[in-house]
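for the recovery benchmark. tokens below, seq after
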């Protein structure tokens, strides 16, 4: 194949991300047989997968180490033409990387935050929409958008690891306990319905039916019953006002709020809308109540603006601000 032919082949960004994730997984697990077979199946699934894999493997050994530590750099490089790849030097790669431990850790953290590794490590993943998963025990698991979980069922336990985002679980009755691992510890129940959201430094739990026990890594434990909303931190579980916001309502496609500040509602809406969404400081503490349909963000914004006596300013499609109307 001539170089001009080779340079015309473009690889989708998602495929590049998956190739990098498989490479990291093989390195971290010592290339065990099961992982190698799973990677081989991924490579054979479509021609783009194999092409991305070959481009990654064709890089020299020094740059491979950088690729494992810095998926961003590797992604950009693999998506370049073959000719450009051949001209990339070790010095250029290391210079772009910065050569520092901080740089490596920062890129690794970004890869996790953006969910690049989810297709490899998670059993169920969502992007821009929610999804319902029926588990083997007849439990129902909803994943909100941009969420991922790992599932493990055995003869003695049912387990989920909430890796990212938000889930809503209806755990069916079973002789096996149902465990959900979060950053702060493990939630356990025999039969319950609850909503769980993973934030950067805490988890938010709303129990809709039944009872859930929290066993924290730090040693504390707490029972959370139906009707309670609890903020799970490393050292304590703190109750929140359960009447102001229904954290499970997204399953039905709505926001259900009662007397919450406009600023708080806009932050919640930002989870579903791309771009910058804010209000003037004078409007932030205006209390909002109502039920809003999540499938029409523009209607929500128009309703909020009318409610607080504001007008919508669109600097761009993705930058919206609620501004108090001028008094003539």
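predicted aa per position
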């Amino acid at each position: 194949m001539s170089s001009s032919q080779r340079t015309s082949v473009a690889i989708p960004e998602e495929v590049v991300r998956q190739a990098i994730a498989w490479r990291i997984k093989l390195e971290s697990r010592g290339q065990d047989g099961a992982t190698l077979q799973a990677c081989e199946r991924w490579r054979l699934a479509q021609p783009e997968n194999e092409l991305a894999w070959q481009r990654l493997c064709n890089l020299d050994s020094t740059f491979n180490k950088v690729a494992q530590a810095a998926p961003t750099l590797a992604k950009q490089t693999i998506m370049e033409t073959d000719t450009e790849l051949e001209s990339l030097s070790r010095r250029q790669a290391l210079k772009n990387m910065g050569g520092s431990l901080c740089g490596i850790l920062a890129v690794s953290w970004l890869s996790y935050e953006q969910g690049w590794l989810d297709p490899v490590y998670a059993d169920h993943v969502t992007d821009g929409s929610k999804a319902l998963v029926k588990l083997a025990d007849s439990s129902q698991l909803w994943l909100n958008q941009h969420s991922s979980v790992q599932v493990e069922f055995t003869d003695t336990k049912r387990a989920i690891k909430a890796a990212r985002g938000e889930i809503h679980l209806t755990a069916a009755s079973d002789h096996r306990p149902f465990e959900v691992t979060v950053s702060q510890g493990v939630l356990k129940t025999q039969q319950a319905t609850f909503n769980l959201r993973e934030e950067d430094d805490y988890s938010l739990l709303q129990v809709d039916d039944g009872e859930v026990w929290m066993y924290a890594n730090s040693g504390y434990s707490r029972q959370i019953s139906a009707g309670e909303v609890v903020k799970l931190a490393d050292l304590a579980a703190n109750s929140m006002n359960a009447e102001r916001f229904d954290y499970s309502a997204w399953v039905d496609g709505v926001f259900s709020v009662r007397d919450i500040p406009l600023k708080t509602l806009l932050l919640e809406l930002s989870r579903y809308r791309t771009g910058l969404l804010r209000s003037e400081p004078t409007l932030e503490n205006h209390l909002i109540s109502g039920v809003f349909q999540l499938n029409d963000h523009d209607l929500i914004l128009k309703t909020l603006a009318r409610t607080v006596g504001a007008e919508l300013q669109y600097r761009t499609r993705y930058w919206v601000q609620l501004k108090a109307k001028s008094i003539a």
